[in-house]
Design brief:
The complex is a heterodimer. Chain A is an alpha+beta fold. In chain A, α3 packs across α6. Chain A is globular, with a radius of gyration of 15 Å. Chain A has six helices and five strands, in the order ββαβββααααα. Chain A has two domains: 2-77, Roll (Ubiquitin-like (UB roll)), CATH 3.10.20.30; 87-153, [2Fe-2S]-binding domain (DNA polymerase, domain 1), CATH 1.10.150.120. By secondary structure, chain B is an alpha+beta fold. Chain B folds into three domains: 3-188, 2-Layer Sandwich (Aldehyde Oxidoreductase, domain 4); 208-276 and 335-410, Aldehyde Oxidoreductase, domain 4; 287-326 and 422-700, Aldehyde oxidase/xanthine dehydrogenase, molybdopterin binding domain (Aldehyde Oxidoreductase, domain 4, 2-Layer Sandwich), CATH 3.30.365.10. Helix content of chain B is 30%, strand content 25%. Chain B is built from 20 helices and 30 strands. The model of chain B is unreliable at 1-44 (pLDDT under 50). Classes of the chains: A alpha+beta, B alpha+beta. Chains A and B meet through α1, α2, α3, α4 and α5 of A and α7, α9 and α18 of B.
């Protein structure tokens, strides 16, 4: 039903008046103009639409907007809001941990949720945590390298 | 040439140098690729030097992830002698960029690179002439670095490219300006940060479905459930009740549109229709017999000696038939287009590998003259050969024309599978013979369905024949392939290499020889011998007769002028049939390496992608109905599949840059099949080598 939903988006309060069963992905993209969060499969199978909700990686294509009411939502646009790249973004640049770039926002935010919980994961833990995100270009090895590097140099998810 | 002919003052503040494409160069394009539109390509602008000294490079190629946005300006910066960071790229814009047939076939560097280098070299020569006149210094006493020309013996005599060209436009050719020798390169071959890096890690990178225009509607098109189905009794009344939904019926095109994509999705679900379709004639089990029955007459690709004589000389004759299924491109970005029509002019943002083919298709659909259609290609979220059509652009354009508002059409995942131009299913039958010493005496290779690229063997065999019937290029008899097929990363070469290199291993095992030694005995091509030796060294190959129980394999192949040899080590879980590839080593000779890190990245990506067609990727179907709708059914490679990847880039500066991103994928099918045989002693003759097929083969023993 049509309702006003308030949440924090990239550090700023937002209010949207929408059918609150609509998925967060489309509210972000079509109502709030944030197109960094990508549509890939629509069924939580690829990870391109991943955002952080209270620091947990969530698939926004299957997350109803009412479920983020009162919560902190972080999209890829919010990660470097100050203009300075987050250590994960910086590591993705240095390792060229992307090709077409379409899965990249979801990859970075999925990795962020790992480092937020576990600042120094092992390689195997990184693999396990990232395993449900798809990349068709085959940037996997560099993504793992970048996450490992960011964990080593970047004080976990903070900064 | 007179100076007044060469300097023409124009209103624009940039220098435009026009270049003619050397007809010889056009002839070197591989056969069977679409040819260049001759009239449109005679003169083309590739670069402009702005008054601020920045260089804008215009190319018809697009950035799919393969790094053309980075490698191409490296070449231009090198020839022009400007800093890499001062080049801005404009790619795949049909109004601004010179004609290009499309971004595929690993051609960006191999075929287009020389064109861009020639443009840069010629521009530099023209600029040096201008500088010589302005500084009153003979050209041979000038030097140029980072866009600044100075007299070699007097540094106070200096002028920048920007100062030279300010407010002027130059139109002339300097014939036969040589490009730089490889040993003089200072930018090519060095590592740079990709030009698309920052935008792609911050979410700022725009793809065709990210374009947002005032008043824009999102469109969902009603689809038949199968390619051979017809829709009848279409009822859109329930959808029309949703506030803000527009329903369009334009001939065969029925669509629902809304300002919010997800509301359009919901509206589409409310559209009711009846589908009628014939009884499915073929499915993914019967397809191979069907292909053999429906294929056209085979064409002889290569022939030499006498197969009969070869068979007489043979101590052993081996017959095998190799199969592979339809495979999807499955880029994570689905086909996307955004269309705007204003004052009789259509502008479209399209995720495409071929903007210059989309343009005439859109013009025809709208009834517009071609000059009134502009295709802009933003970043493309992966292509792999699957984004060469124009359907989503045509649909967006038609709908925009009907509703009088901008329209965005982004396929959902089921549409992406349904309309994909799959890698064709194929049957390869090989009959061959060898002497007791492991020398191949004849080779008879018959491919049906895949296409003939690199079907011909590079092994030294006196008596041979290679035939091909039907393929990805089209021109197949109607109904041979039950749906559209097309180029998939290294088209036809994955199929042909899987069959050839599996068969070579079958022969090696039968001969009792080590598979590397067997290959060496039948090879004379020095480039192939070199990559084979290089991968052997990197991998630490220990000779042995297969099956050795170690799970190691080898495979060799050629594509796009590049030679590739691969080895792998893997483990087979006999209980589950699951394969874990532990190591992949690849040696590749691709001529001069323009961007070594970019090349490594392409090679890693190609290897990782290849694991999918080798192990799991397979399209299931019943007649014209595609059963895979999403990634739960169609399994792509996961992080946990990733082997340790070891790459050897052979230094071959005497050869111009060749293809890079496709050759690494051609060996994966065979190298894994060969290593599975080495591990557990069963030979998989069909791709993909799924756990079910492996268990079945193990059960048969």
């Amino acid at each position: 039903m049509q309702r006003t939903v308030s949440f924090t988006l990239n550090g700023k309060p937002v209010r949207v008046t929408v059918d609150d069963e609509r998925m967060l992905l489309w509210v972000l993209r079509n109502d709030l103009g944030l197109t960094g969060t990508k549509f890939g499969c629509g069924e939580a199978l690829c990870g391109a639409c991943t955002v952080l909700v209270n620091n947990e990686a969530m698939r926004s294509c299957v997350t109803a907007v009412r479920d983020v009411a009162g919560k902190q939502v972080l999209t890829i646009e919010g990660l470097s809001a100050s203009g300075k790249l987050h250590p994960l973004q910086d590591a993705f640049v240095r390792h060229h941990a992307f090709q077409c770039g379409y899965c990249t926002p979801g990859m970075i935010l999925t990795a962020y949720s790992l480092l937020a919980k576990k600042p120094k994961p092992t390689r195997a833990e990184i693999v396990r945590h990232m395993d449900d995100n798809l990349c068709r270009c085959g940037s996997h090895v560099r993504i793992l390298d970048a996450v490992e590097d960011a964990a080593r140099t970047g004080k976990g998810g903070a900064r | 040439m007179k100076r007044r002919d060469f300097l023409k003052v124009a209103g624009s503040s940039g220098l435009v140098v026009f270049f003619t494409l050397d007809p010889l160069r056009a002839d070197q394009e591989p056969e069977r690729l679409p040819t260049r539109a001759a009239a449109a390509a005679d003169f083309n602008a590739y670069l402009r030097i702005g008054a601020d000294g920045r260089v804008t490079c215009f190319v018809g190629k697009v950035e799919l992830g393969q790094g053309a946005m980075t490698a191409l300006p490296m070449l231009l910066a090198e020839e022009l002698d400007v800093a890499f960071d001062t080049i801005d790229m404009v790619m795949g814009d049909t109004d601004l960029c010179p004609y290009d047939m499309g971004t595929f076939g690993s051609l960006c560097i191999w075929q287009f690179g020389p064109v861009l280098r020639a443009a840069g070299a010629e521009a530099r020569a023209v600029l040096l002439e201008m500088a010589g006149e302005q500084l009153q210094v003979p050209v041979d006493q000038l030097q140029v670095k980072a866009g600044v020309v100075t007299a070699a013996n007097n540094a106070s005599k200096r002028v920048t490219y920007a100062q030279l060209v300010q407010g002027k436009r130059i139109e002339r050719r300097l014939p036969k300006v040589p490009v730089k020798p490889v040993k003089a390169f200072t930018i090519v071959g060095k590592g740079v940060v990709r030009k698309d890096a920052r935008e792609k890690v911050t979410g700022a990178a725009k793809y065709a479905g990210d374009i947002t225009l005032p008043g824009m509607l999102h469109a969902r098109v009603l689809r038949a459930p199968a390619h051979d189905a017809k829709l009848e009794a279409i009822d859109t009344s329930a959808a029309e009740k949703i506030e803000g939904v527009r329903v369009v019926r334009d001939g065969d095109l029925v669509a629902v549109l809304h300002e919010r994509r997800d509301v359009a999705d919901k509206a589409l679900q409310l559209v009711k229709a009846k589908a009628s379709r014939p009884e499915p004639a073929v499915d993914d089990k019967t397809i191979f017999d069907h292909l053999l029955k429906t294929a056209p007459q085979p064409r002889t690709v290569a022939q030499g000696g006498s197969l009969e004589q070869g068979e007489q000389q043979a101590a052993t004759v081996i017959d095998r038939t190799y199969l592979n299924s339809y495979v999807s491109h499955a880029a994570i970005e689905t086909h996307s287009a955004t269309a705007q029509i204003e004052n009789g002019k259509a502008t479209l943002w399209v995720g495409t590998q071929a903007p210059f083919s989309v343009k005439p298709a859109v013009a025809q659909a709208l009834g517009f003259p071609q000059q009134n259609v502009r295709i802009i290609t933003p970043y493309v979220g992966g292509g792999f050969g699957g984004k060469t059509g124009a359907q989503q652009a045509v649909e967006a354009a038609r709908l925009a024309k009907v509703v009088g508002r901008p329209v965005q059409a982004v396929w959902d995942r089921a549409e992406e599978f349904f309309f994909d131009t799959f890698r064709p299913a194929a049957v390869v039958a090989i009959r061959s013979g060898m002497t007791g010493a492991g020398k191949i005496t004849f080779w008879d290779f018959r491919v049906v369905g895949a296409g003939d690229r690199n079907a011909q063997s590079f092994y030294e065999v006196a008596n041979h024949r290679t035939t091909s019937a039907g393929g990805w290029q089209g021109g197949n008899p109607p109904g041979m392939h039950p749906f559209a097929v097309g180029p998939w990363r290294a088209p036809s070469v994955n199929t042909n290499t899987f069959a050839r290199e599996s068969h070579i291993d079958v022969m090696a095992a039968s001969s009792g020889l080590d598979p590397v030694e067997f290959r060496r005995r039948n090879l004379t091509d020095p480039r192939m011998l070199r990559v084979l030796a290089a991968v052997e060294k990197q991998f630490g190959w220990k000779p042995g007769k297969a099956p050795s129980g170690r799970g190691v394999g080898v495979s060799c192949g050629i594509y796009s002028g590049t030679y590739a040899a691969m080895m792998c080590a893997l483990a087979v879980d006999k209980a589950t049939g699951r394969v874990q590839v532990e190591r992949v080593a690849l040696a590749q000779d691709m001529g001069v390496v323009v961007n070594p890190d970019g090349a490594r990245q392409q090679m890693e990506g190609s290897i990782t992608m290849g694991l999918g067609y080798a192990l799991t990727e397979e399209v299931h179907f019943k007649g014209g109905e595609v059963l895979e709708r999403n990634f739960d059914a169609y399994e792509l490679p996961w992080f946990s599949w990733l082997p340790k990847i070891e790459l050897v880039l052979i230094d071959n500066p005497d050869l111009a840059a060749q293809g890079c991103g496709e050759p690494p994928i051609i060996n994966i099918g065979a190298v894994i099949a060969n290593a599975i045989h080495d591990a557990v002693g069963v030979r998989l003759l069909q791709l993909p080598m799924t756990p079910a097929r492996i268990k079945e083969a193990l059960a048969k023993g």
